[in-house]
Amino acid sequence: MVDKRLGYIIKRTQQLLRLQMDGALDTVGLTTPQYAALSILEEDEGLSNAELARRCFVTPQTMHKIVKGLEEKSYVRRQSDPTHGRKINTLLTSSGEEILQSGHEIVEDIETEMTQDLTKGEVAQTVKHLSKCIESLESSS
């Protein structure tokens, strides 16, 4: 049965998680892709549009729209890279850091709800096993 296949379970989980995140993040004026971009920039600030797009699994054109929306809200700013004339870096602003913290709280609540019937050890094992699946797929492509 399809509902017992790992790929189906992963996709269904992703769809439900995205639906929950879309609704909850909307309460603070963020979309899920905007939250993802801000989260990546928190970890690795100063990425170019192309680098940010790769990390967020979207096209550069889509990322351009996401970054433009974040710029309009003053959550990010863009500046020329001092070491590379054509590269434009995207940087979090203090407003972006604040809204991102609100987003983190929302997403943590959703993840807590999603894993409420699992022990901390089971959550850690799930992360470990799914990470191994990612590594296997990345090495075979």
Overall description:
The chain is mainly α and 141 residues long. It has one domain (2-140): Winged helix-like DNA-binding domain superfamily/Winged helix DNA-binding domain (Arc Repressor Mutant, subunit A, Orthogonal Bundle), CATH 1.10.10. The protein is 68% helix and 11% strand. The protein contains six helices and two strands. The protein has helices spanning 6-26, 32-43, 49-56, 60-72, 94-114, 120-140, and strands at residues 76-81, 84-92. It has a two-stranded antiparallel ribbon. A hairpin with a 2-residue loop joins strand 1 (76-81) and strand 2 (84-92). Helix 2 (32-43) crosses helix 3. The longest helix has 21 residues, at 6-26. It is globular and about 50 Å long.
Secondary-structure-derived class: mainly alpha
Describe the oligomeric state of these chains in a short phrase: single chain
Helix count, DSSP H or I runs of 4 or more residues: 6
pLDDT averaged residue by residue: 95
Measured between the Cα atoms of the first and last residue, the distance is: 27 Å
The number of distinct structural domains comes to 1
Q: Which regions contain 5 or more consecutive residues with pLDDT less than 50? A: none
Order of helices and strands: HHHHEEHH
Helical content class: 55-70%
CATH class: Mainly Alpha
Strand content: 5-15%
User: Radius of gyration over alpha carbons?
Assistant: 17 Å
User: What do we call the CATH homologous superfamily?
Assistant: Winged helix-like DNA-binding domain superfamily/Winged helix DNA-binding domain
Main sheet, how many strands, which sense, barrel?
2 strands, antiparallel
**Based on DSSP secondary structure assignment, what is the total number of beta strands?**
2
Under the CATH scheme, the architecture is: Orthogonal Bundle
Shape: globular
InterPro entries: HTH_MarR-typ (IPR000835), WH-like_DNA-bd_sf (IPR036388), WH_DNA-bd_sf (IPR036390)
GO molecular function, one term: DNA-binding transcription factor activity
Keywords: DNA-binding, Transcription, Transcription regulation
Domain HTH marR-type: 3-135
